[in-house]
Design goal:
4 helices; binds 1-O-pyrophosphono-5-O-phosphono-alpha-D-ribofuranose; alpha/beta; Rossmann fold
Length: about 180
């Protein structure tokens, strides 16, 4: 699988160190609360699993799955909830966990939904931030790594549902996805 990468951006060890730092910061910032940590499926499952084990205050964990209404509408910002939360967010301090922020449309939509439902606060933590692709003005509150505008896979990021389980993050070789 690693042969399919053009280069490795962040190793397993570099990611682990940074996730530990971010976990410490979040533990400090949320010391007096019991935040509801929401993972956005599927990509966030790897980061969420690592991050919550670096948070040493009580947290609750839930998941949402959202997707755009068909391929052509991603740029419209119209997204649909495929799997909703099991618990109410009213009055809760919510921490949304993402693998990557790209255009920002997914998070912008999700943040609005959660605030409309009465969340006391909504913050965003992402493993990777790709600001060059941003369409909506939204910034993560916590970010492990800022990344260039390249085709990245690993650590939750996929190409056609593959590579999510790679422990590092790298740039996919163009010959793997060209011609599609
Ligand atoms: C990715 C990622 C974010 C979203 C970011 O999910 O996990 O949820 O895209 O893109 P945006 O900032 O342009 O909205 P994707 O739809 O690829 O689904 P996945 O998590 O199942 O891979």
């Amino acid at each position: 699988m690693l042969d399919d990468l053009e280069s490795i951006l962040f190793s397993r060890e570099q990611i682990a160190d940074r996730v530990q730092e971010v976990g410490r910061t979040i533990s400090r910032d949320y010391a007096s609360t019991q935040p509801l940590v929401i993972g956005v499926l599927k990509g966030a499952f790897v980061f969420l699993a690592d991050l919550v084990r670096r948070i040493d205050i009580p947290v609750e964990i839930d998941f949402m799955a959202i997707s755009s209404y068909g391929a052509s509408t991603k740029s419209s910002g119209v997204v649909k909830i495929i799997k909703d939360l099991d618990v109410p967010v009213e009055g809760r301090h919510v921490l949304v966990v993402e693998d990557i922020v790209d255009t920002g449309m997914t998070l912008s939509y999700l943040r609005d939904v959660l605030l409309r439902r009465g969340a006391a606060s909504v913050k965003i933590v992402t493993a990777f931030d790709k600001p060059a692709r941003r369409v909506v003005a939204i910034a993560p509150d916590y970010c492990c790594f800022e990344v260039p505008n390249a085709f990245l896979v690993g650590y939750g990021l996929d190409y056609s549902e593959r590579y999510r389980h790679l422990p590092c993050v790298g740039v996919l070789r163009p010959d793997i996805y060209s011609g599609e």
